[in-house]
Amino acid sequence: MNAPTSLPVSMPIPGHVDPVPVPRPVTPREDGRTDLIGLPRPQIAALFQEAGLDAKAAKLRAKQVFHWLYHRGVTTFEAMTDIAKTMRPWLAERFVIGRPQVVEAQVSTDGTRKWLLRTADSHDFEMVFIPDADRGTLCVSSQVGCTLNCRFCHTGTMKLVRNLTPGEIVGQVMLARDALGEWPKGSMAGLELADEVEEDADEGSYTADGRLLTNIVMMGMGEPLYNFDNVRDALKLVMDGDGLALSKRRITLSTAGVVPMMARAGEEIGVNLAVSLHAVTKDVRDEIVPINRKFGLEELLQACADYPGASNARRITFEYVMLKDRNDSDDDARELVRLLKQYKLPAKVNLIPFNPWPGAPYECSTPERVKRFAEIVFDAGISAPVRTPRGRDIDAACGQLKTAAERRSRAELDRLAAEKQAALG
Ligand code: SAH
């Protein structure tokens, strides 16, 4: 039916470091209905028009439906109380309001939550929520698996399965709001909640006051700049004042350094930038962040210097994983400072103690080493907080995301296959 026109086209991956093809994501739903989640207003209007509404009605309905979908988070057309009662079944026959399926939800002893999610075509990926005293950060995935193969990252040992669609990316944020009970209640005409609802609850943008989910980081599975179009389209819905209405200042996109896409990220998305730097010499960075062989340190730092919107008020975060005896010497710290100054970068450094995973070829630097490294950077006038590992007990910390299916060992998979065979025979 309408499915093909509603699907965004995925971006081809530039460069030779990514031999894995990225298949076109979505298979149309079997029931012929179209999932509206992930679509912007004009596309919703176009679908309504294709389904038979005249242009003016389609535009009006799209505006209403958009508000209900992204601002209020309703999951049925029946709940759209300002749409005529007869119109609601008409919508439900043709469209659905999707969410990623929750396979498993885990809570860490420190309050961090991790969800194992599944796409409609049965690919698993993860999302993490990290509550803090003054904020709550949702760590969102952009791909199922990853092509980058960073040596210290567990997700990097998964092969890339596919890009997530805009609906699957914005769907993570929507699911988190469902789980945290954080949709604005509002007081639209006809809504029967009026008693418990503050009059202005529906007004203005989504603020931090009293909210659990205040910030988003594109730091889950995948490289967001290798799925540029879908990430941009999803974040536009997140930032839309009549959508999820989260300020771009509360969103951070992290890249391992896909240099050719960085300027466009600044221009077309405009969120805060984080760069997974992790090393200051070619040799070490080539080894631990292999995309460095394609886009080297100088190019990367120049792209950071040129990043639209970066300023002292909106600094670029440089992530630096602390690997024992690999990148954690005093000289490394001093070289880091030198480079950041040479390129005049409005920078802050985020030191990440390495989170171990089974079979990882590195160890975490000692706490004394991390402290000393941080001091050198800090004494040069650059903020250098050490990121507290969160959710390690449920494998939710940086670099630990890898779905359960992929975590099974080869031997285990062979055993399962043999059992299945035996059961069939
Ligand atoms: N591909 C993007 C988004 C992933 S963000 C990027 O590379 O920036 C996840 C962050 O966690 C990155 O900075 C990554 O380098 C870091 N990371 C990966 N594995 C880690 C580990 N085992 N311990 C600590 N940090 C890790």
TrEMBL record:
Catalytic machinery residues: E126, C398
Matches recorded under Pfam families: Radical_SAM, RlmN_N
Superkingdom field: Bacteria
Domain Radical SAM core as annotated: residue spans: 132-393
Gene3D superfamilies (UniProt xref): 1.10.150.530, Aldolase class I
Keywords carried by this UniProt record: 4Fe-4S, Cytoplasm, Disulfide bond, Iron, Iron-sulfur, Metal-binding, Methyltransferase, rRNA processing, S-adenosyl-L-methionine, Transferase, tRNA processing
Gene Ontology biological process terms, A to Z: methylation
Gene Ontology molecular function: any one: methyltransferase activity
Entry EC no(s): 2.1.1.192
Top-level EC class: transferase
Protein residues bound to [4Fe-4S] cluster: C146, C150, C153
Catalytic activity from the UniProt record: adenosine(37) in tRNA + 2 reduced [2Fe-2S]-[ferredoxin] + 2 S-adenosyl-L-methionine = 2-methyladenosine(37) in tRNA + 5'-deoxyadenosine + L-methionine + 2 oxidized [2Fe-2S]-[ferredoxin] + S-adenosyl-L-homocysteine; adenosine(2503) in 23S rRNA + 2 reduced [2Fe-2S]-[ferredoxin] + 2 S-adenosyl-L-methionine = 2-methyladenosine(2503) in 23S rRNA + 5'-deoxyadenosine + L-methionine + 2 oxidized [2Fe-2S]-[ferredoxin] + S-adenosyl-L-homocysteine
Residue segments, region Disordered: 1-27
Subcellular localization(s) per the UniProt record: Cytoplasm
Residues where S-adenosyl-L-methionine binds: G222, E223, S254, S276, L277, H278, N355
Cofactor(s), names only, from the UniProt record: [4Fe-4S] cluster
Function in brief: Specifically methylates position 2 of adenine 2503 in 23S rRNA and position 2 of adenine 37 in tRNAs. m2A2503 modification seems to play a crucial role in the proofreading step occurring at the peptidyl transferase center and thus would serve to optimize ribosomal fidelity.
Xref: NCBIfam families: rRNA_mod_RlmN
Annotated family: Belongs to the radical SAM superfamily. RlmN family.
More info: Reaction proceeds by a ping-pong mechanism involving intermediate methylation of a conserved cysteine residue.
Protein name: Dual-specificity RNA methyltransferase RlmN
Natural source organism: Novosphingobium capsulatum
Lineage, highest ranks first: Bacteria, Pseudomonadati, Pseudomonadota, Alphaproteobacteria, Sphingomonadales
